[in-house]
C-alpha cells in the first residue's frame, strides 16, 4: 500500500464501517450509560443520560472513521483532525469526565495510528508476520534475561536500602513478590505440566489457615509453621489430585475451581475451628529466626531486633525483614523450577503438557507425574499462604475468593505459560499497575481489562511465549540464532 | 517373545477385537495388514494396555501383561511408535530423545543417542530444532528414534508410512529393516501400505473386522490371490 493516495479512497465503505461501529456503540451504551437509576424520596427513578450516549456514539463513529481513512492513505488530514479532537478534550466541556478521557485517549490513538501509517506507508502487518516479529523480540528479551535476571535480583535485594524506599514501597514490594511467588508456583502446574488449575487460591488458603491455627492454638513459631503449612497444602494437593486427575481439559479446570470453593465454604462454615466469616485476628508476627522479636518492648527474657543490632527501634525493620523472607521464598521457587526442568520429573511435566498420550506410550506414569506437580506447586502455595497470614496478622475467607485464583492464573497466562521472566513482568503489570494507579479509582479496573485485551490481541500466547530448550547438542555461541534461522527456513 | 492368545477388546459394548491369536518370535519382523477400522491399531494399543483386553492373554517373555498398566508394560521392554508420530512439537529433537530415554538407565544415554544419530543422520543435524518444525519424514524418524531410546526388545510401529511421500516411506522401511538386521530388534508393524509391509516382513497376518483371517510368510501373502485382490491391486 503506497502512502501517496494514488488509489481512490472509498468514502462510502469507510462511512459504512464507521456507522456500524457507531451502531454497536449505541446498542452497548444505551442501557449501560444512557439510563441511570437514582434513589429519590419517591423511590427508584430512572434518569436518562442521552447526551452522554450521543457523545459516546459520535466519538466512536469518528474514531473508527479516522482509523479506516488513515489506513487508506488520508494520513495527514486524519492526523490533523485527531490532534484537534484530542486538544478539544481539554477545552470543550464534556458531560462527564469519563467521556473527556475517552475523547483524549481515542483522539490520541487515532493520531498515533495515522502518524504510523504515514511513516511506514502501511498500517500494521498481517497476523503471522506480527507474531514472528514479536516472537523474535520475545526471544531476544529472553536471551537478555540471562543478564536481566541477576540484575533484577540485585535490585530486589537492594530495594529496601534505596533512598525512595519508604514503608509503602517495601509493602508494595511484599505484595508483588507474593504474587510473583504464587505465579511461579502455579506455573509449575499450568505452565510446565499443562494442567489448567482454576483453584490455586485453595493452597494459599490452606497454608494461611495452617499457620494461623498452629500459631494460635499451639503457639508454634513462624519458622516451624512455614514447613508445616507447606506440608498441609501439599497434602491437600494430593487429596485433590486423586479424584481430579482422572479428568481432562475443561472438566479438570471446572473441578479444581469447585474444590477451591469447597475449601472456602468449609472455612466459612466450620466456625468452631476457623471462626467463620469473622476470620482469625491477632496472628503472631514472625520473629527474627526465633532469636529476636520485632518490637519496641520485648517480653521478659526475649531479645528485640533493634537491641540485638544496636539500632534505634523502627517499625519498618519488620517490614523489611518480611520483604526479605518473601524474596527468599520466591527465589527458592524460581530456582527449583529452573533446576527441575533439566531433571527427569520436569522433562516429563513438559512432555505431559505437549502430548499426554505420547507420554504414556513412553512409559511415563502420568498420574504420578501430575500428582507430583500438584503436591509441589501446592507446597509453594502453602508457603505463600503462611507468609500472607503472618504479614497481614488477620485472615478471613474473604481473602481467598475465586478472583485471587483468576489473578494468579492471569499472571501465568499473560506472562507466557512456562516463562519465569514472563511471570515477573505480568505480575508487575497485573498487580503493580492497579496498585500504582489507585488514584484512578473505579477506572483502574477498566484500564486493567483493556490491558488484558490488548495483550491477548497482540500476544495471544503470552508476553514471553518462547520456550528455551533445556539442552543443546551443537553448543555454539549463537545456537539460539541458528535454531531460529533453521526454523525460519523450515 | 510375544504371544497373543484369544484376546478380545471392547470399546464400551462394541467388540473391536473378537479373539485374536498372534505370535512374534525374537528377531522377527511381523506385520499386520488390514483395511481401515479392521482393528489393527486397537490390537497394538491392547498390547500396550490401553485399552486393556477384556478376555485373553498377552504374554511377553513368559509374563502375562494383559492386566498391567501401560507404564509398567513399556518398562518391561516394549516400545511403541504411535500412530501419527506424536512427537513433542515444542521441544527440540534432543529433548524428544531424552524423553524417550526417561525409563532407560541414564548412563546409557550418550551411547544410545549416538546410535540413533548414526541411524538417522538428519536428526543429528537438526538436534536443536523444535520437533514441530521437522518435515513429516523427519518427524517419523524422530518418533522411531525416541522409541529406540528406551532400549526396547520389542518395537511396535503403528502405520509409519502414514501421510509420507513414497520416497520417504521407502527410506523409513529400509531403516526398519536395518534396525532389525543390525541390532536384532524384534519388530511388530501395523500397516495399510500392504505391498511394502509384506515385502519387509518375515511373517504377516491379515485382519478383517477384528479377526485374523490369513497368516503366513510375507512372500507367501504377497502372491496370495485373496490378499492381492483386497489389498494390493488397484494402487501400488
Write the layout of secondary structure elements.
The complex is a heterodimer of chains A (490) and B (236).
Chain A: H1 11-32, E1 35-40, E2 43-48, H2 50-71, H3 75-91, H4 97-120, H5 127-158, H6 167-192, H7 201-218, H8 222-244, H9 249-269, H10 271-274, E3 292-293, E4 303-304, H11 305-308, H12 316-340, H13 344-354, H14 356-361, H15 366-392, H16 402-415, H17 420-436, H18 443-458, H19 479-489
Parallel strand pairs in A: 3-4
Antiparallel strand pairs in A: 1-2
Helix pairs in contact in A: 1-2, 2-3, 2-4, 3-4, 6-12, 6-15, 6-16, 6-17, 7-8, 7-9, 7-15, 8-15, 12-15, 13-15, 16-17
Chain B: E1 2-11, E2 14-24, E3 29-34, H1 40-47, E4 55-60, E5 63-64, H2 70-75, E6 78-81, H3 93-100, H4 109-119, H5 121-125, H6 136-148, E7 154-158, H7 166-183, E8 186-191, H8 194-200, E9 203-208, E10 211-217, H9 218-223, H10 225-232
Parallel strand pairs in B: 3-8, 3-9, 6-7, 7-8
Antiparallel strand pairs in B: 1-2, 1-4, 4-5, 9-10
Helix pairs in contact in B: 3-6
Which CATH class of the largest domain in chain A? Mainly Alpha
Helix content of chain B: 25-40%
CATH architecture of the largest domain in chain A: Orthogonal Bundle
Count of individual helical segments of chain B: 10
SSE order of chain B: EEEHEEHEHHHHEHEHEEHH
Question: Strand order of the main beta sheet of chain B, please?
Answer: 6-7-8-3-9-10
Instruction: Count all strands of chain B and give the number.
Output: 10
Percentage of residues in helical conformation of chain A: 55-70%
Instruction: Classify the beta-strand content of chain B into a percent band.
Output: 25-35%
Average pLDDT value of chain A? 83
Write up what this structure looks like:
The complex is a heterodimer of chains A (490) and B (236). With 490 residues, chain A is mainly alpha-helical. Chain A folds into 2 domains: 11-124, no CATH class; 143-458, ABC transporter involved in vitamin B12 uptake, BtuC (Orthogonal Bundle). Chain A contains 19 helices and 4 strands. In chain A, the strands form 2 sheets. Chain A has a two-stranded antiparallel sheet with strand order 1-2. The longest helix of chain A has 32 residues, at 127-158. Chain A starts with 10 loop residues before the first helix and ends with a helix. The radius of gyration of chain B is 17 Å and the shape is globular. Chain B has helices at 40-47, 70-75, 93-100, 109-119, 121-125, 136-148, 166-183, 194-200, 218-223, 225-232; strands spanning 2-11, 14-24, 29-34, 55-60, 63-64, 78-81, 154-158, 186-191, 203-208, 211-217. In chain B, the strands form 2 sheets. Chain B has a 6-stranded mixed sheet with strand order 6-7-8-3-9-10, sandwiched between helices. In chain B, strands 2-1-4-5 form a 4-stranded antiparallel sheet, covered by helices on one side. Chain B contains 10 helices and 10 strands. The A-B interface holds A 344, 347-348, 350-351, 354-355, 357-366, 467, 469-474, 479, 482-483, 486-487, 490 and B 48, 50, 69-71, 73-75, 80, 82, 86-92, 94-95, 98-100, 102-103, 124, 126-130, 133, 146-147, 150.
